[in-house]
Each structure stands twice: as C-alpha cells, then as structure tokens.
Amino acid sequence: MNWRTISYALGAIAVTSAPLAHAQTPLTHQIGDASVTLYGDLDLYVNFMHSSSGRDLFALQDGAILRSRLGLRGGIDLGDGFQGAFGLEQGLNGTSGAPADATRLFDRQAWVGLVTPGGEVRVGRQNTEVFLRGGYIDYGGRTLGAVINAFGVPSRYDSDLSYLSPRVVGLQGAAHYSLQGATVDHPAEQRVYQLALDYENGPFRAGYARIAGKPPAGSAIKTRVTYDNFYANYSYGVGKAYLVYIRSNNNGASGDLFNGGSPLGNTGALVAGTDAGADTVYNIYQASADVTVCQGLRVGALYGRIRDGSGTGKNASGGSVGGFYVIRNTTLYLIADVLKNDPAAGFRPIGSAGLTKPFTAAEDVNGRTITGVHLGFVFRF
Fold first, then answer.
1. What per-residue confidence (pLDDT) applies to 190?
2. How many domains does the chain contain in total?
3. In this predicted structure, what is the pLDDT of residue 3?
4. Can you tell me the distance from the alpha carbon of 48 to that of 239, in angstroms, rounded to the nearest whole number?
5. What angle do CA 126, 19, 328 make, to 5 degrees?
6. Is the separation of the CB atoms in 253 and 259 below 8 Å?
7. How far lies 43's CA from each of 152, 218, 279, 337, in Å?
8. 3-state SS of the chain: helix, strand, coil percent to 5?
9. Residue 294, C-beta contacts closer than 8 angstroms, at least 6 positions apart
10. How big is the CA angle at 194 (ends 242 and 272), to the nearest 5 degrees?
C-alpha cells in the first residue's frame, strides 16, 4: 500500500460523501435499505514533558484521548430481526496528515458482521474487548494520564472471529478467536483468544476481559502471554468512581529501555516466543473519579501502581488530574500527569496514539520520573 493508493482511496470516500450534508442524518447516506456513515475525529495537543534526568520534551502531538481517524460504517436491514453491518477505519496522524500505518488502508478496523436476535457475529480486523472497555476504566477513558496505558493495552487483531451476546438481566458476554493462518500448531501460525463479561445494573457496572496468546511450537520462550482486566465503576450522580485491576505478562524490554515491549502485541502482532518479558507477571492497580463542575465541564483525578511480580524491581507508580470541557462536538482538555519509575523500570506516558516524539534515550526513561502537561482539543464528526 503506497501513499498514492491511500490518497486515492480517501479521496474517493470524500467524493462519495459529498451529498451527505443533504441527508436527514449528517454524514449518513441512504442507499435503498442500506446506510453508510462517514465519521471521524481529529485530536491534537501541545505536549510538554520533563524527565528527572533534566531533559525536556515540547511537541505538537496527535491522539491524547482519541487517535485521529477517518472511518466508514454501515448496515442494511435484512428482515426478521437480522441486519448486515460493516466497519472500516483508518488512523491518521493529525500533525502531518500521514496514515497511522502506511502498510494498511484501514489499520484500525476492517470487518463485516451479521446482527441477529441471538447476538452479533463479526469477521475481520477488530478492536479487542479490553480496548473497547476503555470508557469503563477511568475518568479519562484509559488514555493519556492513565498508568494502565503506560503499561500497554492490546488493541486489535487481524483475522478475528467474534461473537457478542444480547444483554440479559444486565449481563453481556463476548468471545473472539483470531486465527492468523490455516494450519493449527504450525510453527509460523498462532492464535489469540478473548473472553469478556460485562454486568450493568443502574449506576453500577463491573466486568472482566481476558486476552491470551500462545507462542509458536518450539519457541525459545514458551510462556503463554495473557492480559486479564477486572473493572468496576459506580455513578454517583455528579460523577463516577472507577476501580481497575490488571494481571498481565504483556510487557518486556524495548531496546535499551527496561519496559515498553509487548510480547502479545498492542496493535496486532502475535506472540513471537522470543521476548523474555513474558516470564515476568505484573499486577496493575488503578483508582480514579470525576465530577461534573457545571454544564459541559468535567474534572477528574487518578492514581495507579505497576507492581513487578518477579521481585526484580520493575515497579512504577503515577497519577493524573484532568479537565474536559465539551462544546457541541468539540472537547477541550488539559491533563497533568506524573509517572515515577523505580530504578529497574522504564515505563513512559502514552496517549490513545503513541507519541511520535517521546523520550527515547534510556537515561531519560529508565529509573526516571516523568511529568507532563498536555493541552489540546478533539473535534468529532
């Protein structure tokens, strides 16, 4: 996939969507019984970070709380309670206009599905259940300022079969099976499994999501990589309180940095069986709350800890405070955060999109405390 192909494809989307302003629903075009909606967002922010090494970082970045993107979604009523559906979504770097992944046209999602009275089935590149639960995790949607996000979140996988059940007496389940080839247990082929449960009852919500990947046969590191996420939140009228616990070995060294690698992959890579980080299990705890100050203005705070279960000192802790002011489809935000690494740890703050200009030198990350202030806005359409 080259730049010319990508520009032609996105241009075709724009031309196709030109008459949509005249439709009853903005940016939605009706074709017979089928509907197609163009949607997206741009999230740009000024990012200032300071490392206890003395080094400063000042940059314009993309995707503090939402990765900039352009997408198409749609469906058709097939009758008798059945519907066809699809989703195509491409991530963008709002600072340059470049695609988030130049090797793909739709790097974030590319799936087709069937909605039935007994649940929904989808096939294709899809977001993980852990990723989809970001809004249940903390006041900022588990993005910039979240300790959990600094650890890493497996976000999506190719060739993914999924099933989402109806919600019954408050309970809804989901299952995924990502098959990356045709031969089971072939050394070059692997599988990623997902299971999730979500329970909602009035102001209370709780749930669990699991991702698990097995390395290829004969791998040097034979450990199965897992990500178990337990969450609960409670709405108390003017705000919401959140509690989260994660147990995972999806973290390892990244070059000279003590942390930052992802044996399970955060955006689609599978377990290679070569990352010794899979032998270290971490426990991550996080609590946060927010409150609505006045119409459109919400503020929140968060504290979290990453604990290395191997006893080798790869621990970190941190927190954040943030404010979000919504004016129609635009959100203004200000976030201040701190992440403190123990001497053997090397975690870095990260937003919904990875920082294109982060601290990269080991002496600025390993064992360092990183503080930041981030001011930006999101425009949704």
1. 66
2. 1
3. 43
4. 28
5. 65
6. yes
7. 20, 43, 36, 18
8. 10, 50, 40
9. none
10. 110
Structural domain range at position 306? 3-380
pLDDT tens digits, 93-110: 999 999 999 999 999 999
Q: Cα separations (Å) of 95 from 4, 6, 46, 90?
A: 19, 17, 11, 15
pLDDT bracket for residue 146 (50, 70, 90): very high
Number of H helices, E strands in the chain: 3, 20
**pLDDT tens-digit profile of 297-318?**
999 999 999 999 999 999 999 9
In 10 A of CB 284, how many CB atoms? Answer: 21
**Residue 9: per-residue pLDDT:** 39
Does residue 60 have a pLDDT over 80? Answer: yes
In angstroms, the Cα distances linking 262 to 50, 90, 239, 266 are 25, 22, 34, 6
- Radius of gyration for the chain, computed over Cα atoms and rounded to the nearest angstrom: 21
| Percent of the chain scoring above 90 in pLDDT | 78
- Two tokens at 231? 């969450």
Beta bridge partners, 324, equal: 298, 333
**Which of these, 146, 150, 154, 155, lies nearest to 286 by C-alpha position?**
146
Write out the H or E segment, with its range, that includes residue 3.
Answer: helix 3-16
DSSP annotation of 222: -
For residue 155 the two structure tokens come to: 């976000």
CA dihedral 162→110→146→280, nearest 10 degrees, is: 60
- What is the rounded CA–CA span in Å between residue 16 and residue 8? 12
- pTM summary value: 0.89
Collapsing DSSP states into helix, strand and coil, what is residue 147? helix
Domain of 220, CATH number, reads 2.40.160.10
Average pLDDT value over all residues in the chain: 89
Beta bridge partners of 172: 198
**Least confident span in 27-41, 87-101, 151-165, 229-243:** 27-41
Question: Residue 179: CB partners within 8 Å, gap ≥ 6?
Answer: 159, 161, 189, 191
Structure tokens, 305: 């800890």
Dist. CA 287–CA 138, nearest whole Å:
7
